[in-house]
Amino acid sequence: MTVFIDGHACGYELQRLTQMFFPGEKVAVEQGAPPEDFAGDFLHARYREGLLEAVSRLGDGFPRALRAEAPAGGTAGLEHRFGVLAYTLLSEGTGVRPPWGVLTGIRPVKLFAARMEEGMDEAALRRHFMDERLVSGEKFSLAVETAAVERELLSRSTPDSFSLYVSVPFCPTRCAYCSFVSHSVEQAAKLIPDYVDRLCGELAATGEIARELGLRLRTVYFGGGTPTTLTADQLSRVMDAVAAHFDVASAWEYTVEAGRPDTVTEDKLRAIKAGGGRRVSINPQTLSDGVLAEIGRRHTSARFFEAFELARKVGFDCINADLIAGLPTDTPEGFRASVDGVLTLAPENVTVHTLTVKRASRLSFGEARAELALVDGMVGYARRAAAAAGQRPYYLYRQNGTLANLENVGYSLPGREGLYNVYIMDETHTILAVGAGASTKLRHPVTGEIERVYNYKYPYEYLSRFDEVLRRKKRVREFYLE
Ligand code: SF4
């Protein structure tokens, strides 16, 4: 697929929009008009003397064209008008109607929150998002509801707030769909003892900086990978280092991901509890054993139920469970059974991710349309089931590179939301991150400026270049004092 940009500078936005219809496929951007003998699919967006014209040709079909007058509002106005023309042409040509309309960003709720902050009432919001930006009614109400809950959670954060992220990038095996930097234990087991030592060292250095700057810890989050790949003793060591160098008692939340049920044991859960952990995430992804085998997770749904019950027994009163809609070989019935099965356990939070086909270029337009309807139907079911269980959506982000960039949504019982998820997604306050693959995200308390400080991606680099990791951490101090 090629987008030809002719007489304007909206290439980036049009490429992103087109990509939603062709995930996984390379969407090239060229300047000027398509050559006469151009053979592939294309979208030609042309701007001349106050007139916009979009022409698309897909497959063997005839080219189709739409025109509009140039809007007010400079580049943003032009981008929006071209976006609507392109969306209309591409959805007519493919039959796929991305339900978020022309919104391409990964945080649509932020746009809704900003308009609500400006005082737009529901009718004005509907006009703005549904009529002008072509957002579906269902996504509109999802975004409005999420924004309202999020707003209250965000308002708790103050300029001196920060969250701490601890990365444990190891997993027992690698899931087929994984895109994170995680090493299976078979490969990396020998690195873990040194990794734990270094992590404790980085926590000490980071805690010192946070103390010096007078920052206030709000949430702690152990993620990865699968933190419970560590032994109970290793978990205790890292959590003791957190407690020694940070004011954990004043934090609002302390989460440890115990993502893979096959890593969850009673002694690890007890170590987490003793170390100050208050929330765990145990993630079945699906309750279908056939689908679990298909995606390379070496556990059964029964193992998930055991792990969940164990966490309750140990005393966790805030448990999250992740599910994925659109896993290979899963069906709508299978997904519905997974949602219902998880909700019978009455978890405080359920997070529903979408995993639609990444390479839609392998699909015909009809298949892509069916795929979108299927997965969107699954996430719609999850929303209704969560609502029936008293859970509200509290954070939402979209996933680039999936068909129509469908959304991931966190649901929660009121008052039990996973705050870290909201703060990281909104960039509300600084996230100090430690460990391999972690990136510290600094938010300036006065200017709101964002800067990232990256750690090395892979554990072996993190270990061998640890001095550099500590050197980079000094940037945190400079950033706040500048
Ligand atoms: S548990 Fe998560 S991080 Fe680990 S391999 Fe699976 S998807 Fe990747």
From TrEMBL:
Gene3D superfamilies tied to this protein: tm_1862 like domain
EC number of the protein: 1.3.98.3
Keywords, sorted A to Z: Oxidoreductase
Domain Radical SAM core: 156-392
InterPro entries: Coproporphyrinogen-III_oxidase, Elp3/MiaA/NifB-like_rSAM, HemZ, rSAM, rSAM_horseshoe, rSAM_sf
Keyword Cell inner membrane applies: no
Alphabetized Pfam families for the sequence: Radical_SAM
GO biological process: porphyrin-containing compound biosynthetic process
GO cellular component, one term: cytoplasm
GO molecular function, one term: coproporphyrinogen dehydrogenase activity
Entry-linked CDD domains: Radical_SAM (cd01335)
Superkingdom in the source lineage: Bacteria
Enzyme class: oxidoreductase
NCBIfam families: rSAM_HemZ
Protein's name in the database: Coproporphyrinogen dehydrogenase HemZ
Source organism of this protein record: Anaerotruncus massiliensis
Gene this protein is translated from: hemZ
